[in-house]
Amino acid sequence: MRQYFNKWIRIFILFLTLGGTGSVFAQQTRVSGTVTDASTKETLPYVSYSITGSTLGGRTDADGKFNISLNGDYTTLKFSYVGYKPTTKVIKVGTAQVLNVQLQPEAMLMNEVVITAGKKPRYRNKENPAVELIRKVIANKAKNRMEHYDFVEYQKYERMMFSLSNLSDKFRNKRMFRNYQFLFQEQDSTKIGGKNVLPVFQQEKLSNNYFKKNPEKTKTIVIADKRVNFDERFIDNQGLSTYFDRMYQDIDIYDNNISVVSNQLLSPISDGAPSFYKFFITDTIKNHNPQLVELAFTPRNNTDLLFEGKLYITLDGNYAVQNAFLTVNKNINLNFVRALEAKLDFEKNPDDRYHLSKSNLIVDFGLSKKAGSGFTGERTVTFKDYKINNPRPDTAYRGAGQLVVVPDADKRSEQFWANNRPEPLSAGNMKVYGNLDTLQSIPSFKRTMDVVTLFFAGYKDFGPFEMGPVNTFYSFNGVEGFRLRLGGRTTPSLSKRYYFETYAAYGFKDDKWKYFLSGTYSLNNKSIYAFPQNYLRASFQRDTKIPGQELQFVQEDNFLLSFKRGENNMMLYNDFYRLDYVHEFENHFSYTLGLRKWQQTPAGSLYFSNYPDNGILGRTNQISTSEVSLGLRYAPHEKFYQGKIYRVPIIDRFPVFNFRYTAGIKGVLGGEYNYHNFMGSVDKRFYLSQLGYADVTVEGAYIVGKVPFPLLAIHRANQTYAYQLNSYNLMNFMEFVSDHYASINIDQNFNGFFFNKIPLLKKLKLREVASFKVLYGGLRQENNPALNSGIMQFVRNENGVPVTNSLNRDPYMEGSVGVGNIFKVLRVDAVKRFSYLNNPEVSGWGIRARVKFDF
């Protein structure tokens, strides 16, 4: 009986398998897989697929993955993606299967066209439905942005990961890495970064964010911050994190320009997007609520700073972006970038509009865009608990600045992070923190970092004391001849309260010693190099100086600045006795109070004389002044990287305001003059979309009182062959002085906007630069030796012609045009001087070069 029953069961199952149109097994067909580019092996996001013989379909996720269940006896799936050949795949009915699909690029990729026959229709914006759609998206931008709401709040999770990438097995197996194999990670070789990666930095941050529309206020409260911390002797951890934040900013698709790797790329839904992009409707997704239109876009010129990719636009009347995939063309004029991908996902608000719920940006860098090891950075941001129009009192926005870090944010437990991460970290990423802590304890790694720090920062660390900077150990000039210098400073290893710095130098031509000694006391128990600074410093310095020369981020006795054009033997021996107090605040406002006793003695061919005929009897050996000063600085939203010597600002769109007041007091500590010096300046970068950016500096000063010319404003000149942004590159040292002046300096970088349009030339990825500098100034009668013979006279050359002058009614003007990005690091300018061409020993034009590493 049992055998009889089993026989009929097998017959019944066979009947269902072969002929049952309502087959149970057919209803259980499940297909999953990943869609990739057949050439690059990269995953393809949001690929459309349809089920042949039905109206059903869908699309892959941001990582190119799909997972579907089919009811019915459907046997084929069709995959389509802009720029790729459609592909149809056979599936097995009634089984669970993995189907990985590789799409072949078409002969004409994106905006590259191969004409085989006939005439290809010209792309036009007029009567183009894709352009009409994008114009509706642009028209509705305002209501789809966060700023549309009166109040918004959300929690934000950020994770940044940086790794050495595209490492070969041969590299990994080198002898030097024999003890470091635990650091390497393996991943799918089709992913950006290649098979072998070596993580070097990871940071996670959790914050609560609040926005108020009227008046507009924002507040970010960081409640947790976990990151790899390197030895502060080698790396500024906070500065490193800040630099990475600047490189990988939040992507707001609704902004006209999107900041990526320190450049601004035009958004595909910017107001002017139809003039720079081509748009194509590639699919309509009807099985999504609301319906979506898949809109592909490509640059009209593939070397411009533009994206390419896909947008998914809602057809619910809001015309909002529901998903976005952004990448860049391989020919883009962007240095060292091998690959760039940004994926944006949006979720519905209660009012049926959308907010950004997740973004992922990954960029792979390399000296060569084709092969070799490089550097990959990935930033993932997730938004949750998004609330709109939930009013909060004004007190919620008060406090020290827009960014507040709660106490012990960097001491959260592992359980806290496990409970608050939107997605758990992979096993490999969980080990990064511990692995890098272990690495720093290995003696060979410490030795390597010691050498790297010496090479890049210029200091050799000896624990409580470090020696350097090495680029000042040897230099030469017209007064001192061959100059040797040796110095150093204490480190936080000795004390976090007290810091000392010193150097000694000797000139073999003038046979004189120069030296410096300072002691600093930190008032906030932080390193005096850490933000915010709050310290008191006393110092003494006896050294040479070129009058009026003010350098940024480099010492005057830097070896490379020893090479100058023309005569360079007018210098000063300066004795400075100083007492300075510096206090910075979290909102980036700071003030400095100073006391200074200053003695100036002429050196070389420079002399001080009160007689027009330069008689020997009329010469003065020294000028003594005593000064008090107040400096104010406000740099909202400023970010910077703190190096061993200088704090280097990361320039952004926010202005920087400076004001300085100095008063000379006669009769105090040997001071010989009464005067008041007021100086102010504003620095601002203006981003001009596809025309690049302009750095503009406006400056002015006014000196009240009768003073000799060394105490006037000696305008910044440059007699080196390096192009200096803040100096007048065809002005000689001490050529002009003023007791009142105003100036404007404009430095324009076009980022290749014009060169990118020239065939063949655009392959060189060159970038156009131009500058224009204007200086208005003058001397009142009381300070002008030409009108007042009773004051110190200007220096004259051997022919009796003044080499120092006042500006009259005509301004000093110079401009330049140049080519940047030569070999990716060099800028060369042809500089032209437009006024005061009859002054002695001046050049009407010159070639200047500047090394600049930029993306």
TrEMBL record:
Which SUPFAM superfamilies does the UniProt entry name for this protein?
Carboxypeptidase regulatory domain-like
Q: Which residues form the signal peptide?
A: 1-26
Which InterPro entries does the entry link to? CarboxyPept-like_regulatory, DUF5686
Q: Per its UniProt record, what Pfam families does this chain match?
A: CarbopepD_reg_2 (PF13715), DUF5686 (PF18939)
- Keywords for the protein's UniProt record, in alphabetical order: Signal
What is the protein name stated in its UniProt record?
CarboxypepD_reg-like domain-containing protein
Q: Which source organism? A: Pedobacter steynii
